[in-house]
Protein: Citrate synthase
Organism: Suillus discolor
Amino acid sequence: MGKQLPASELKRDESLRVVDNRTGKEYTVPITHNSIPANFFKGIRAAPGPNDRPEDETERGLRVADRGFLNTTVIESRITYIDGDNGILRYRGYPIEQLAERSSFLEVSYLLIYGALPSPSQLSHFTSEVLLHGPIHSDAEGFFRSFRYDAHPMSMLTSAFAYLGSYYGEANPSLQGQDLFTKAAKGDPVALQNMDRQIFRLIGKATTLAAMAYRVRQGRDFVVPPTGMSYTESFLYQLDHLSPTDHLSESHSNKPHPVLAKALDILFTLHADHEMNASSTTVLQTGSSLPDPFSAVAAGCASLYGPLHGGANEAVIRMLLSIGSPKNVPAFLDAVKKRQKVLSGFGHRVYKTSDPRSFIIRKVADEVFAVTGRDPLLDTAMALHDAALKDDYFVSRKLAPNVDFWSGLIYRAMGFPMDFFPVLFVVPRVVGWVAHWRQMMLSPSGVKIWRPRQLYLGPSTRDYVPLDERTGAFQVGVGMEPSVIEHSGMTKRRKLAEAAGKVTSKL
Ligand code: CMC
């Protein structure tokens, strides 16, 4: 840890003085926005020490190690700011609480992508473009029907975004030239228009694809996105619509319930962006090699799906169901502390206090429960929440509820199947992803491929051993050989029979 100089000796200089104790050389590292450039350290070189391996490349400059990106900034962004110690989240400077209360999801989407809250005419243009791009080629029906009957909707949605890219050759830098989008940064209006068209498509079709993934499992026909509804109303309609003439009726008889549509709109606003989370990073990482944006969004879906990220809302409900009732909460928390179980919906890389979105969600939950009735799982959730917040294990690690702790309860109350919850996260997050992607494409300094480094700890150079001379004896440790797996149903049945004591000798 650094030693503090006396105030009299302190002359403010935006730099860091570093001494390399291997060589005695001193370096001055510039500080910009309270960050130091990792690449500077590449210039700090030394002769290899006695313990260095050739693969450490000591003479070629120091590397910066940051497993899991704990403290690495990868982009300059003007979109979202999180102050995790104080529970603050702002989109383009606006506090999330104000946006959730006063703006619609598409208004917030405009803000995230274009940097300012839209005027009425800007909002109307953006809304009509997004909704106009909702319908999808009828061939997509065959695509969705090709999945197995019990496919997870996230598998379908992830594939669907990549599939969508196959329709739009004009959005593919591999076909049109690699500066297809990046030339927008130099003021090319056609490139900018092309980029925005893909953005309208991605946001407009996100609900269509999600609804198709939902309906295919219900054995229902697909629905053309309706007109005359908001983005979230249209989504609910596409999920639930039954009669082919619904949308023609004057009264819109099965227009979604206003409280539920409003609740979903707020949830979408809360999920629209969250700066450099795992999936946005994945979208940018993928986007940095300049594929079409549909492929980048598909990669984002895959990243979001995991239970540590957007799959946590599904994991929370599975966890609450497994706990069963408030009386089982203490035993569950003990198992978490022994690292036998995971407390889903708690903890966050950035927030070291309650996630500000979780307070807004709890208010929304009350409004939803007033319509749908109270979910009995809520009692277990409350008991778990209260007990964890009083327990030193969680308090000392600054583990507090995140957005996913509550969102699943609302989705469940609204009648969504559990495995659809991550989809309800993806749909709004497409907006954040495209906002970051667009910002990167418009970067005045161009797009740099995201290609991190590694610390290679594997074998140094060694000579090839012919097959008949290999013993396999040096392969020690977990996962050093392919696992032995059973293949046929016959093998499985034989094992069952053995277990039941019906087969005494090995066949
Ligand atoms: N339950 C129990 N212990 C936890 C939890 C948890 N949910 N989260 C973190 N810890 C412990 C962790 O074991 C570690 O303890 P120790 O220092 O003794 O080893 C300490 O807290 C620090 O945690 P970490 O693993 O270094 O934290 P991280 O920043 O690498 O991981 C996280 C963040 C969100 C992946 C993690 O907190 C977690 O797995 N939470 C549960 C999954 C979840 O709710 N994810 C949704 C995140 S919010 C929505 C989104 O943006 O996706």
The chain has 19 helices and five strands. The mean pLDDT is 92.
